[in-house]
Structures are given as C-alpha cells and as structure tokens.
Amino acid sequence: MERPARRRVPRRLRTPYAPALALALVAGGFAAWAGQDWYGAAHDDRAAYAAQRDRALAAGEQAVQNLNTLDHRDLDRGLDLWEASTTGELHEQLTSGRDGFADQVKEARTVSTARVLSGAVTELDDRAGRARVLVALRVTVRAADGTRTDKDSRMLGELTRTDGRWKLSALGQAPVGGAPAG
C-alpha cells in the first residue's frame, strides 16, 4: 500500500515559538501604547488645572462654612478660625472689628452652625492665584431662649492663594433670582 504524499508545512509554521513571538509582539505594542497614553495623561495641564480647581473649591467651601459658624461659648476659637480662613482686606476687616463683634455675640448668646449644601468654582486663574466660588449653605442659629432658625443662602467668595493655600479674600451674598448683586 502506498502512502499518501505528505504536504509540506512551511518551516516557519512548524516552529513552536511563532505563536508566542506573535503574542509577545502584540503585548509589547499594547504596553507601549498604554504607557504613552498614561504618560500623556499624567503630564497633561488639564489634570493639574482640575486638581487646583478641586483644591480651591474645597478650601472655599470650608472657609465660607467657617465664617458662618460661631458659638458664643467658644468665641476665641471661632474667631481665630475666621482669621485663619481669610487673607487681604477681608482678613483686616475681621481682625480690626474682632472685639466689637465678640461683644455683640456674647450679649446675644447665639450659636450659629453652617453646613455646605453645594459649591462650585465659577472662575479660576491658577497662574495669578485667584479663584471665585459660589457656595450654597444652610445656617442654623440657636438663640439664648432656645429658638432655632434655619436660613439657606448663597455666598460668593473670592479666594487668593497665599503660601500655597487658598484663603477667602472677599465674601458676599449671591443675588437670588433676577435680583441684581448689591
């Protein structure tokens, strides 16, 4: 009986390393592409800008909350926190009027507590170290007689970066509805 003629398989297909080599080339190409993509994202200015925006927002929300929270039983701590949260003209106003304001709060015997509801950065100039934030908060005031009043408000804050930290340099009420800013 005669054997059927064998078909010759090209030598490159008979090498057991060919599939492994092809897989290694594909994996190497993917790794190079992924590495280049990661490097580009890590060194993208947009990522640094977004991180700075997030830091400004967090600092702005905290500072606005600080300036709307004060307990007559621990005034020095609260007023020190106000001063630590501010810079520039706002800081000067707070320090120069501290004693008079402390007397008013002691006499009224109030406790105000603020809670941030939401916030947003409306402007950011990272190079100049300036930002603006809009913060919505609920302020609860407890009077000496035990009555409690809740008030929701929106505040516009201007931030200045000082020694690498964002601090409030101006603060005011945001206009509500169609009312112009005053």
TrEMBL record:
Residues 69-170 form the SnoaL-like domain. Keywords: Membrane. The keyword tRNA processing does not apply. It is found in: Membrane. It comes from the Bacteria. InterPro entries: NTF2-like_dom_sf, SnoaL-like. Its main location: membrane. This is Nuclear transport factor 2 family protein. It comes from Streptomyces werraensis.
